[in-house]
Amino acid sequence: MMDLTAKFGDLGSLKGISQLLLLVLRGQQLQEQRDATIQQQQREILAALNRQGNSTVGGTIIELPEAEWQPAASWAGYLKLASDKEAQKVLRTQLARCRGDSVASTIRRMLLKCITPEMMAQLNYCGRGLAERSGGAGTDDSLGFQTTLLPLLKRAVSTMYKDDKPHERPSERDVEKHVISALKHTGDNLRKKAKKRPSAPEQGSGKRHYPDSQDLSDESPSP
Known about the structure:
Elements: H1 4-8, H2 14-51, E1 56-57, E2 60-61, H3 75-83, H4 85-95, H5 103-114, H6 117-122, H7 130-133, H8 140-143, H9 145-148, H10 150-160, H11 172-196, H12 213-217
Antiparallel strand pairs: 1-2
Helix pairs in contact: 5-11, 10-11
């Protein structure tokens, strides 16, 4: 351990204290630079692996930083997620971390990884009326959640619960029922919350405020 007194002189003096502070700040800067370099290297490695079509390495899930994943917030984003294989590889790593205390909470968390609450409220399970609602983005059948993202959720749930006891593993029908319930109740909850707020928009904003995903993720659907 270095002799600080020999290096900086009187540590009680203004000069000694200043030199110590400079030493500490320099150490922090070097650590931040090392951390930034490591994070950049991790991003480059993950990007390269995803380009090669790999979602796992040695059985370990590749996880992108949470801040880099955003759920679909528009029809265009929803359709891209439903058709883009590269985006789905990244989404699978997000879904793998969504297990909750119950199957219902797991499904809600998964849905909120896929789409925003506002977008969720626009959708339904079978697709009825979605061609018109989306402005012609597709047919009713092609836009329904059961066609677009449900297969992805089913595979994720099957993998997530594969080590549970057989009678505790959710069936595909269980997943379907919880998705239907979550889609329905998200729309209902958003409409109820919107009605409780003043009808006039806040000054400087033409949009009505909706709750964020955290507001919805703790709400349980009715039986």
